[in-house]
Model the fold of this input.
Amino acid sequence: MDIQRIRYFLEVVRQKNFTRAAKLCRISQPSLSQQIMKLEGEVGGSLLLRKRGNIELTEHGQIFLQFASAIMAEVQTAEEFIRDSQGKTKKAIRIGAIPTVAPYLIPKVFKLIKTKLPDARLELVEGVTPTLADALRNGHLDFALLSPHSATENGTESLLLLEDPLILTLPKDHSSEKKKKISIAQLNKEKALLLEQTHCLSEQSESYCEAVGIKPQFIMRATQIDTLLGLVEQGMGFTFTPKIAIPHHRHRKVSYHTMAGKPYQREIRLYWMKRHVLSRMHQSVIHSLTT
Done:
């Protein structure tokens, strides 16, 4: 099987468009289509479907994508080993992070990595979980800082960095503001303020509300944690704030409370693609965050 054809396939999947993929691969579109057809002949089935200008994976393609991603991860490990052995300049270490983690954890993570790898060139990519998970699988990221999600389960390994409690956040003048612990009954029929549904923190907050029986009147959406806290400050409703974010938003006049019963918390993990042999770079980054 031709490795270059696998590269082409992964780029088409990433771009969801033959024209863009061909441009990035520096090959003509007819040639790219021909290479994909040859790859389909090798694997014994159709991999891609063209639909309304976009590309979708067939069922066969979805299965093959897992193998293709694993193959390219091993190829990248071999390429990194060769660069290390020849003393060539190391490529940038590309780390993705979700927006509800990046501002609060990335500076510390980068500092720890630099302690272990002072000459490393670090690149940050912020995005929502599905986008970063795709980039990780397609080889466009080396690592991703995520809160566990089904999109990251296949073909990855991870390191738990911390458990981050979600803290109930109320306006300063709320009737329950002076209570350290708030009961579920006190939040029923309140207004919930959450991030847009593309954020895993929103999904986690909604799941918690459903699990413990909180039934808010309605949900207002925002794209940033500080926007939510500004709305809470103005008495528009309540939200859940990750504990790691609280020191960065002290300017907001809100109050923080724990929920009665078992507190809810999310895990924050460093993800990378599963490989038979980890490159020196991967080993060094992981080691820097475990010591």
User: Anything to note?
Assistant: The chain is about 40% helix and 25% strand. The chain has a mean pLDDT of 86. Residues 191 and 237 are 5 Å apart (CA to CA).
